[in-house]
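tool=predict chain=A
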Amino acid sequence: MQLDGKVAIVTGAASGLGRASCIALAKAGARIAAFDRDEARLADVCRELGGDALGRVVDVANEESVSTAIDAVVAAFGAVHIAVNCAGVADASKTVSKGQPFPLATWSKVIGINLTGTFNIIRFAAVAMTRNAPEGVSGERGVIINTASGAASQGQVGQAAYSASKAGVIGLTLPVARDLAEHGIRVVSIAPGLFDTGMVSGMPPKVSQSIVDRMILYPNRMGQPDEFAGLVRHIAENAYLNATTISLDAGARMQAR
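tool=predict ok
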């Protein structure tokens, strides 16, 4: 897909991987619809993007919130060509801790945002994409890019909900790609390893370096958000990538803790 002039929705756009994806796609000429729950940081991102970037406060797990926001994108920009799902939370708890079971509210929150929220964006964005004119020799109408995680298969202590949610993202990639192939819409997921984002920024340097030394093969550092964003751009531009999950983890193997 040629990105110049295309319309890209990015969730989790106010920080980390989502923010970097907004910047990379905008630099390639795409018009950005940035979705996030953090209104103040979302406004900062839209100011940075400049131009006609559209910011919307969106709860990805809420049907009406997503439906209304995507309708607003179509009204403002005329179409949706790309959807990048970066919204996510990593609330953790052990299955049993201090004699108490894993809080069901925590489970529901993580699954609701990471998995249900991803599919909620997919389904409404895909409807909008079906209305696009086919492009290029393959007749492409859109591309959906999801964020999974290495934790999907290497979950650590306390990550039952997070790992399950990300395994679910991987699990939906192929069937959704099969559902949407007839419409010329591709679906690809990225499984990042350890990245330098808000989820780890509060760690003392010695702690984060210890994690790097124990878990990452090469290069011996955490990933940078712009490296994730570079892959997002490549997936959008490479029409032959479909129905797969790409690991972006420097050979990381996560330990139990």
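The radius of gyration is 18 Å. The chain has one domain: 7-248.
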